[in-house]
Amino acid sequence: QVQLVESGGGLVQAGGSLRLSCAASLSISSINAMGWYRQAPGELRELVARITSGGSTYYPESVKGRFTISRDNAKNTVYLQMNSLKPEDTAVYYCAAMYGSNWSHSWGQGTQVTVSS
User: Fold this and answer.
1) pLDDT 10s per residue in the chain (117 long)?
2) What's the CA gap between 47 and 38, in Å, rounded?
């Protein structure tokens, strides 16, 4: 099972940017997809970006045009560039690897992102 370690969270003012990184313990080139989720206090965990092994990406409307997911297979690392951050983006952000025929998920430990107004 792949191990994931996120980094890059922190405190930023509204309108600012952050880049999150997710380092995987195994090759990600053959994993179905890599994704970023977030969970705010009292809320359900939600998908904010996903990239498949073929490079196709998905974003919900809430972050489309502001967030960009990318992957570096040589470094087994996935990134989430977040621009024009809003206070409602405040959450713990989790990296996920989706693999196998059942699209099982492996999760990182999460990294806190706080956007002040």
Assistant:
1) 899 999 999 999 999 999 999 999 998 888 999 999 999 999 999 999 999 999 999 999 999 999 999 999 999 999 999 999 999 999 999 999 998 888 899 999 999 999 999
2) 7
